[in-house]
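BUG: 3D viewer hangs when loading the predicted structure for this chain

Environment: internal workstation, default settings.
Expected: structure renders.
Actual: progress bar stalls at 90%.

Input used:
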Amino acid sequence: MTSPALTLDAVNRMSAAEFSAVFGKVYEHSPWIAERAFARRPFVSRLDLQMALYAVVQGASRDEQVTLLRSHPELAGREAQIGTLTDESAHEQKSAGLDALPPAEFARLAELNRAYREKFGFPAIIAARLNARAAIFHAFEGRLHNDLEQELQNNLAQVGEVARLRLRDLLA
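Structure tokens produced before the viewer hung:
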């Protein structure tokens, strides 16, 4: 997270392997998105690169989209507890205080994670860096009342926000 930011000129000169290595982590455990977006070079702006990556997600099959969602960790879930979050996810969850929940909030979030996954088959995704803890709980509770299609779209939008922030961290 502390590596120097890249310029668009440097990005446009990358090989496919370099591009995938750098931008494969923008979408959690889904380097296939960067691999497909590489063909859309040259990028004229950060927004152009962001939209190329997002277009891959939007053009993906429903199964690929669900797999993408399932690759994300639960908020303060098992991966956070055992220390196997990606550096990016750990930073994002910490920024919302999810790494230091009081026991009652931790128990409530564990219950929300379980109920959400049971209902929809993938974890709830919320761009933690853009939300305070209370807002995350409120959104989570409200989204449990949605249907599958709404939550698929909500999660894809949230994944897009997470990717936008990660991309901002990578590019000058």
